[in-house]
Predict the structure.
Amino acid sequence: MSGPGLFALVVEDDRSWQQILQEILTDTGLEVDVADDLESAMVKMHETPHRLAVVDLSLKPDNHLNKDGLIILDTIRQLDPGCVTVMLTGYATVELAVSALAEHGAFSCLRKEAFNRAEFRNLVRRALASPPPASMMAPPLQETPAVARPAPVETKATKQFAVLVVEDDAGWRSILLELLTDAGFQVRLCNSYGEAQGTLRREAFALAVVDLSLINPAAGKSQSIQDMDGYKLLANIRAGGISTIVVSGNSKPQDIDRVYLEYDIFAYLEKQTFDRRAFLKAVEDATASKSLNPELAQLTERERDVLELLASGKTNKEIADILFITTNTVKRHLKAVFVKLDVHTRSAAAARAIALGMAADRSVEIYEEGD
């Protein structure tokens, strides 16, 4: 879709939004510059001509009345007329949208709370549909198929599993919904503790994606992080045996450790460094055991690796060499496998693995090994 050597500029003070926008624009074939304030944006604009710029309205996190983004739109129109600009803001009003489009030359004005990846990709394609000016020293753009996106996560369980998403930010709900839906999951969205609790009582889920900061509106924003409704929800989700991924803006090590230790979550992803590939991999891994036979699901991933190699006729030493572990570690894993599968010999364990579909070759001879 985009020509070689074309640049996009993202001007955004929120790191999570920087990451999201950068990934999408990179997927379209653009090289992306990122600036987080007016000053650094000015430097980027003077250094490189850009084909597209996505600009946040307010670039002062402690001042929602800040409108540095409009200054950037005006500067781009003067310095870089071949650059198409898009305003993305959490403070959108009809008046602002009209001003950005009519007075400041923006191609579009988007609200963060209604952000949708697919719609944004389509917007980018439309914005880049016309050839840039010759002064940009790049060949005219031609309408070509979109650059291939990373293949969606597909597992045997994908079409069967429902995922509960509990997030009080509309923008993040939209992002998580799109990622999970694209991967083939059925998604149920909730924006509060109470709504999630009711949903858990009525519906079954294989996975929950939860934000910790589900602030109770009645308690106000002064509510401490220790009292976040997300913690109470994690306890109930754990009691229901549902795998859980936390996606949170809280990056305090002590809180992350607490969530892992007390609530046995599968993964913790920080919004500030959110990466969709890491998220989808966590989802894939979290749901993988759900597609296993219950007997195999109780084994750890490494125990299943050891059992599969055992069932294929490998000795302890061969298993150790393949998995880069010691033979004593192999024996320890096998001991745990024997207990969990209620077998007492290597042959019985191998036979059980074959019966459960882990290995297909029933002619392999299994030799018992001493301690």
Notes: The beta strands are 7-11, 31-35, 52-56, 84-89, 108-111, 162-166, 186-190, 207-210, 243-248, 267-270. The longest strand covers residues 84-89.
